[in-house]
Amino acid sequence: MSANSDTFSTGEVKVLTGATKRQLDWWMQTGLVILSEATAPKRRYTFEDTLKIRTLVKLRQLGYSLPYLRKIIARLSELSGSALTDTQLIDVNGMLYVCHNWREVERATNGQMLWTTIAFAAVAKELRLKLSEVVVLRSEASNTKIKQESSACKMQRERRPQDESRSPTSRRI
Prior knowledge:
single chain; 173 residues; mainly alpha; Multidrug-efflux Transporter Regulator, Chain: A, Domain 2; 3-stranded antiparallel β-sheet; 7 helices; 58% helix; elongated
């Protein structure tokens, strides 16, 4: 179970974003993903971290290279909260634009007929819907832990009478 309901474990982020553990590890090692909060010894991801990772996964699926994504993440790291969710990434012929309002979107598309939009608000909405899966995982993990603890206690209770019968004071002579 998670230490904090406002943060997510690596396993939960995998479910939410579609990223693999190997991708997350590599992105952390190379500095592509930097967590908002310092967490040790285990990594904990905030919702904003998860939002950025989901966006990275979508951009990788569109074919963007990691060096190009580094530039985008550097621009996005300046944003947080509502400024981030109001942001849209516009892909026009392989060029990616960070837009904060519709005027910037119009300027970026410049009369183009075809472009791809990744709206952070839509990605955030998608993540919130997937949070139900994480809640189920957390409750399953909690139930498993409770079952393990209760079976361990039961095993200890079963062993006690046997241990007492073998004690030196109750031995027959």
